[in-house]
Amino acid sequence: MAKQYETVIGLEVHIELATKTKIFCGCSTEFGGAPNTHTCPVCTGMPGSLPVLNKQVVEYAMAIGLATNCKITQVCKFDRKNYFYPDNPQNYQISQLYLPIARDGYVEIESGSGKKKVRIHEMHMEEDAGKLVHDEWDDTSLVDYNRSGVPLVEIVSEPDMRSAEEVIAYLEKLRMIVQYLGASDCKLQEGSMRADVNLSVREVGSDQFGTRTEMKNLNSFKAIAHAIEGERQRQIELIEEGKQVVQETRRWDDNKEHSYAMRSKEDAQDYRYFPEPDLVPIVISDEWIEKIKSQQPELRTEKLERYKEQFDIPQYDAEIITGSKKMADLFEATTAICEKPKKVANWLIGETFHLMKDNEMEPEDLTFSPENLAKLIDLADAGTINSSVAKDVFKQIFQEDIDPEKYVEEHGLKMVNDEGALRETAAKVIADNPQAVADFKGGKEKAIGALLGQTMRAMKGKANPGMVNQVLRELLK
């Protein structure tokens, strides 16, 4: 019988924190910017420059630690991790090895295999490195230090995950917690959330771990799922052929769907860690922890409960809306204005998601205001515009956040409720379509659809469809 294998996966997740300035200097953390413009002597590693810790970084890290059920280390400190690489200007990275800010936590995930807790080994604060830009044409590499010194937390899980599905569930849960806290936007495509996957395989029933590899360069959930599947297969094939799995760091190439060995895995001693001499230890008082606890926002689980009670919307709607902090904020702000929660939910789950899919957007990329969505819902509700016009107007709101009241006025889109004009148009359509009239009178109910469509077209889509239907039926009698 063929051997059965189990995959064992642990993750190291780096999250870029949403502070305005870097971890040890006053430079901007904004994404983009011309190369090397968000820099100063501290983040470019100039001799004699000294780091000063950004307090907001510690507060965000504590908030994430508390929300993931970790114990906060009340005396924690920074260490120097020494390595030589062009994107690392000081030739060391300020990180935390011996006393990380948080440890021993967990998050609960739900996947096809049910609910489970994924344990968090530890979470530490550190600075990001710069970015190497490889120019294939010139065969040169350039370095951009804008990202150097941007604050990160690294969350290291225990090897508790057994499939790509569980890994994605864990990442989505982490991303949601951090977004709800406002600690990061967690955009994988901009690198503000990155995951390295540690993976090994073993025979089912074995309690020994296999040799693990670490995979880097994963910047989408799709890439992570593919990389896990690819690496699992690669290791099983090696074992079946009687070969050894080598402990190493591998780079995933998303275009070729293949991973390449980068380097054999270093151990902590290779980095010659020692306590960071330029920074004092951080002492976190009980009061400080209580203050952060008291400021924690409502997370998704509590929001779900409240939505069902306060807004009386179906569980399905509540789950989709609370799946993103941005969506939940939009829903609540729009509902506060127009007081029609079910209709707001319908617009967000229907049209908004549809347009987001067409434009390959995430909820975080939405730019329209709750005021304009609320106005549109009121216009449609009052019968000022019909549903097809409302959808067209919403497209404009989605793209350019236009004021729907002005737009409807300027483009003459108000619904025509003038029965005289409607009767006249309907009578003309009936006279012009004897076949459809004969079909309808002969018992073909569907034939009225053709007449209704023609009448709506003649009224430039601005008639009230219910009224058109009624008038047609009266005239056909």
TrEMBL record:
Keyword line: ATP-binding, Ligase, Nucleotide-binding, Protein biosynthesis, Transferase
Superkingdom of the organism of origin: Bacteria
Gene Ontology molecular function: asparaginyl-tRNA synthase (glutamine-hydrolyzing) activity; ATP binding; glutaminyl-tRNA synthase (glutamine-hydrolyzing) activity; transferase activity
PROSITE patterns given in the database record: GATB
This enzyme's EC code(s): 6.3.5.-
Pfam families found in the cross-reference section: GatB_N, GatB_Yqey
GO BP terms in the entry: glutaminyl-tRNAGln biosynthesis via transamidation; translation
Residue span, Asn/Gln amidotransferase domain: 329-476
InterPro entries: Asn/Gln-tRNA_amidoTrfase_suB/E, Asn/Gln-tRNA_Trfase_suB/E_cat, Asn/Gln_amidotransferase, Asn/Gln_tRNA_amidoTrase-B-like, GatB, GatB_C_1, GatB_Yqey_C_2, Gln-tRNA_amidoTrfase_suB_CS
Catalytic activities: L-aspartyl-tRNA(Asn) + L-glutamine + ATP + H2O = L-asparaginyl-tRNA(Asn) + L-glutamate + ADP + phosphate + 2 H(+); L-glutamyl-tRNA(Gln) + L-glutamine + ATP + H2O = L-glutaminyl-tRNA(Gln) + L-glutamate + ADP + phosphate + H(+)
PANTHER family linked: GLUTAMYL-TRNA GLN AMIDOTRANSFERASE SUBUNIT B MITOCHONDRIAL AND PROKARYOTIC PET112-RELATED, GLUTAMYL-TRNA(GLN) AMIDOTRANSFERASE SUBUNIT B, MITOCHONDRIAL
Entry's family note: Belongs to the GatB/GatE family. GatB subfamily.
Self-association state and partner proteins as the record states: Heterotrimer of A, B and C subunits.
Reported function: Allows the formation of correctly charged Asn-tRNA(Asn) or Gln-tRNA(Gln) through the transamidation of misacylated Asp-tRNA(Asn) or Glu-tRNA(Gln) in organisms which lack either or both of asparaginyl-tRNA or glutaminyl-tRNA synthetases. The reaction takes place in the presence of glutamine and ATP through an activated phospho-Asp-tRNA(Asn) or phospho-Glu-tRNA(Gln).
Protein name per its UniProtKB record: Aspartyl/glutamyl-tRNA(Asn/Gln) amidotransferase subunit B
